[in-house]
Amino acid sequence: MAASTLRIALVQMAVGEVKTKNVARAVQLIKEAAGGGAQMIVLPECFNSPYGTTHFPKYAEDIPGGESTVALRDAAKKFGVFVVGGSVPERDGDKLFNTCTVWGPQGNMLAKHRKIHLFDINVPGSIVFRESDCLTAGNTPTTFDLPHCKIGLGICYDMRFSELANIYSKLGCKLLLYPGAFNMTTGPAHWELLQRARALDNQVYVGTISPARDTSSSYIAWGHSSMVSPWGEVVSTCEAEEAIVYADLDMDYVAKVRQMIPVLTQKRNDVYELTTKT
Ligand SMILES: NC(=O)CC(=O)C(=O)O
């Protein structure tokens, strides 16, 4: 494989009620994906806990130090891969966050992203959800570097905010990752559309990573973990059940798309400008 190519695995894992089983399953799937040649393995949002405000306090842990992130650290080191740990509910003092950690092959923590945009929605007759009832929002965009490229992180609802993706592209990211758990209302309507929009606007690869669908759960995840190219095409995907989605990302292709349609260098910063505050 060329040095500019990154083999990534998006792990759409089944998440149940028992935290230790969820963590063990994540480690098993990391092992399987590493065996499939993946250099970076990404887990879904809330991989150690069912998704829901009643569950978050019960499953929350300190980061680092809690059992879930220790397991990710050890798995990254044991299998010699980069691990993007979807998210877990994080406890910090009396606050809870929805947090993603990233681990390098030496077991070093490369990044920690706290979900910036909390999922507070009301679609009458379909779904009401208020993460802010129990979670606190993060305030910081998060990037980390692989030998292949810079990567920007968002969690689920963060994908709806184009400004965050624009900032990542401005910072030089060529891949954006969104562990996420859309549902049976917003999933079919918006999941792929948003992912392709973020990819096309910023001429980056965009990966989404969902838990597998569990129809017995109070919050039913849409699934369909996918990778979209900088041209806006879905290059790898799956349906709703547990799956590992592999994709070989070609960083030369990112440069090629940006050269053919150079929107990133044609921005009119004399007319408008995007800035970060943290
Ligand atoms: N669960 C989320 O954070 C977001 C989501 O389901 C949606 O935006 O739709």
Sequence-ordered SSE layout with sheet pairings:
Elements: E1 5-12, H1 19-35, E2 40-42, H2 56-59, H3 67-79, E3 82-84, E4 88-92, E5 95-103, E6 109-114, E7 120-123, E8 127-130, E9 142-145, E10 150-153, H4 162-170, E11 173-179, H5 186-202, E12 205-209, E13 226-228, E14 234-237, E15 243-250, H6 251-260
Parallel strand pairs: 1-2, 2-3, 10-11, 11-12
Antiparallel strand pairs: 1-15, 3-5, 4-5, 5-6, 7-8, 9-10, 12-13, 13-14
The structure holds ligand LQR7VSFR.
The ligand NC(=O)CC(=O)C(=O)O binds at residues 119, 156-157, 160, 181-183, 186.
GO molecular function: omega-amidase activity
Family: Belongs to the carbon-nitrogen hydrolase superfamily. NIT1/NIT2 family.
Pfam families: CN_hydrolase
Percent of residues in β-strands: 25-35%
- CATH topology, anyone? Nitrilase/N-carbamoyl-D-aminoacid amidohydrolase
What is the residue-mean pLDDT, rounded to a whole number?
97
CATH superfamily: Carbon-nitrogen hydrolase
Oligomeric organization of the protein chains: single chain
| Low-confidence parts | none
CATH C-level: Alpha Beta
What is the tally of helical segments? 6
What is the domain tally?
Answer: 1
Given the helix and strand composition, which structural class is it?
A: alpha/beta
How does the major sheet shape up?
Answer: 7 strands, mixed
Integer-rounded radius of gyration: 18 Å
Distance between the termini: 37 Å
Order of helices and strands: EHEHHEEEEEEEEHEHEEEEH
Q: Count all strands and give the number.
A: 15
The outline comes out as: globular
Bound ligands, each once:
the ligand NC(=O)CC(=O)C(=O)O
